[in-house]
Amino acid sequence: MNKVFLSGNVGRDPNIRYVQTRPVAEFSLATEEPSRRRPDGTVIPKLTEWHNIVMTDDAALFAEKYIRKGAKLLIEGTLRTRTWEDRNAIKRNVTEIYVTSFELLPRG
User: Fold this and answer.
1) d(Cα 54, Cα 36) in Å, to the nearest integer?
2) What residues form DSSP beta bridges with 37?
3) Rounded CA gap, 51 and 69, in Å?
4) Distance (Å, rounded) from C-alpha 38 to C-alpha 78?
5) In the 3-class helix/strand/coil scheme, how is 50-83 assigned residue by residue?
6) Using one digit for the tens of pLDDT, what is the confidence trace for 34-90?
7) What gap in Å lies between CA 89 and CA 94, rounded to an integer?
8) Cα–Cα distance between 71 and 53 in angstroms, integer?
9) Burial of 75: CB neighbours in 10 Å, binned 0-12, 13-18, 19+
10) 78-98: burial string, b at 16+ Cβ within 10 Å, e else
């Protein structure tokens, strides 16, 4: 099963593009693990992880109108990894979360 649930803050305003006539929104989402203390007293600092988010169709249109940097989102989706070649012919990999459902959360 390929299912991802994320709750975090939008890192940048969505970038909207059209693939043929289909809208696609892309943006980053930051999730955080709070700092914690191990039983031996060692402190593990807060960890922020950045995720590449992709929304299509009606979700992309919603993102274009209402999602902005700093917004809180709850996202359900699937992981996809794709490979591409940069200008120097170096192969690169990127992992993205393709959104199947989401909820815009109140800031707080």
Assistant:
1) 31
2) 43
3) 14
4) 32
5) EEEEEEEHHHHHHHHHHCCCCCEEEEEEEEEEEE
6) 888 888 988 889 999 999 999 999 999 999 999 999 999 999 999 999 998 999 999
7) 16
8) 14
9) buried
10) eeeeeeeeeeeeeeeeeebbb
Alpha-carbon gap, residue 107 to 105, rounded angstroms: 6
Could you give the CA distance from residue 53 to residue 69 in angstroms, rounded to a whole number? 13
Neighbours of 108 (CB within 10 A): 4
Q: What is the pLDDT of residue 20?
A: 93
* CB 100 within 8 Å of CB 57: no
Question: What six digits make up the tokens of 81?
Answer: 């990894």
Confidence at residue 107, expressed as pLDDT on a 0 to 100 scale: 78
pLDDT, tens digit (0-9, with 9 covering 90-100), for 9-29 = 999 999 999 999 999 999 999
